[in-house]
User: What shape does this take?
Amino acid sequence: MAITEINNEQGIRQFSVYVNIRSSSMPHIRLQKRIKGLETKAEAMRKERTLIKELSSKVAEREGHGLTWRMIIQRWAETVSEEGYQYKTYNPATIKDHVSMMHTWTKDWLDRPASQITRGEGRQVLDSILNEDRSKSFQKKAKNTINMIYNWAIEERFIRGVHNSPVHGLRIIIKEDKRPEILKKDEIRKLLFEAKAQNHLWYHIWAVALLSGMRNGELYALKWGDIDFDNRMITVQRAYNRRFNTFKSTKAGYWRSVPISDELKTVLLELKSNYKDDFVLPRISIWKIGQQAKVLKEFCKSIGLPEIKFHTLRACFATQLIGSGIEPVKVMKICGWKDLKTMAYYLRLTGIDERGATEGLRFLPRGEINVSLVNFA
Assistant: This one.
């Protein structure tokens, strides 16, 4: 608060009043106001008292609405990160993922009082996720995260006067299940042929991905010490975590072995002669920052192939193995899948379970049949 004495353009003495009120319990709530052109200091002091009362009342009113959604998210993250938090242990990466998801998908809520967010706005968030072609599981994850943080805030009395989150009870809508783009054998050959012919920087990376089925982070973390040329086997035992710029265990949490085919051996020997490094594949800067999908999509488009994602190279590997008659259980071990659900997804992509299933249907008449016209009138 301040009363300032000034001289106007005509040289007449005047006073101005400035009042600034901030909530002590909710620092994001702040109101300020200035009045100029007051003729006497006494009048300025009266205006100051009036403003203090007026703004304090408005701050108190806003405090009654509670914390903003941004502050709720922040307090939840700080609380569950504390050592000894008694209810549930969260991995730091999981906490970061939850916060990032909320900042992305509920960004319109962030600076609003959490208690004023409506059920209709909850449906808008789920609809926006659906419109971005995200899966049912992603919708469910976003909904569960909102419920988890909002209900925590209700229990901790950071949100008052509300009993359920804005997405409580809302149904998850399933969008039409589209078959993902995946390359056929001749398209895979075209991809690698064109990449090699153009001496593309990513040729060896794509080739190893297609011939080993390794995940993106596993490819980036692959070292020559993991390659056993004598027994023709790759040991996949680590993956690169871009978020934390560290190496960790594989997604499944255990090591696995990938056989080295003749073609994969050829590619690996080319790499060994070209790159003098502990790592097998070249250290491309845009790969480290997660731009591998963009590069692949642009190259596929340029040569007239479906614009696939980088992870689709792994799907191509798996479906080609299954389609060539390799036992699904072996493919499952090579790819490092924990459950049959993932395996069933790739079986569905290849159609191998259905192939030939209808051959036993013998409905059509056999031999020569004399057909005579019959009057059905």
In short: The chain has a mean pLDDT of 85. Strands lie at 2-7, 13-22, 30-38, 227-228, 233-236, 239-241, 246-248, 256-259. The two ends are 101 Å apart (CA to CA).
